[in-house]
Amino acid sequence: MSSLGWKLVRNFEKEFNVEGEPVRVKFVTMNCVHKQLYQVLVPYNGKEVRFHMQRDEQGVFRIVGRGVCPEPYVPLEAEFAEAIEASPVG
Fold it and tell me: Which residues of the chain fall below pLDDT 50?
């Protein structure tokens, strides 16, 4: 909790099934007060790749710049959004 009494949005990690394999994905918040924009860090071809998920006009988290997101992760957009919504604050 912040000194002003707000519950702070936290970074978190979660495991997802990607092409039949468990993969640990990191979510890094870009706003510590509101769930609004996240950097998502995923392993791909021996490197860590970063793309963003942001809340759209309807309030749903979507992948921003789909060309940056590795193809195996695009189908997980809804699962990533659910993980963000369920992520802890405090």
Answer: none
